[in-house]
Amino acid sequence: MADEPTEPTEPTDLPGLPGRPGAPRVPEDDGRGRVVVGVSGSLGSLAALHRAVAEARRLDAEVLAVHCWTPAGGEFGYRRSPCPPLLSACRDAAAARLRDALDRAFGGAWAGVRLRSIAVRGETGQALVRCADRPDDLLVLGAGSRGALARALRPSVTAYCTRHAGCPVLAVPKPPLQRELEALRRHPRTRLTVIA
Description:
This protein is α/β, with parallel strands linked by helices and 196 residues long. It is built from seven helices and five strands. It is 41% helix and 15% strand. The longest helix is centred in the middle third of the chain and has 23 residues, at 84-106. It is globular and about 45 Å long.
């Protein structure tokens, strides 16, 4: 019988990578295949999560939902001015965001596959590649077109993962609703009105 989603675990070192800060110890699995999916809470990541569940059903695999986080001010800022209470608050916020994303994705119900979740401290691309460390893993990511300014300021996680992952990477395009909302937001004469 499949397990229900679990709570995020405390990030620790990965086996074989001692002393690497922020590397997660991924919970033990049962030897089946694994579908690792990055979950940020955005519409794109929720679409990727649903695709990961569909792939896990097809492959008879389990899903490992990963939410990546960094301390407020980034790792460099935290090294310059460490503040353990702030770090603890950031970790708790990341765990809460992951729980919220899983609840929004599945409405608090069982996903239909074995699903485990973990909040990992680290830059998103690097942390996801470390979590999807087996050749038979499948790494699923939300992807979509970004503007030139966004690409210049923040490199693409999908591009990083496809270059560095040691397993297949599946990039899930933005859902149609997200594309339509972004198009409305770009149009200067459109105003979105929410009626309660």
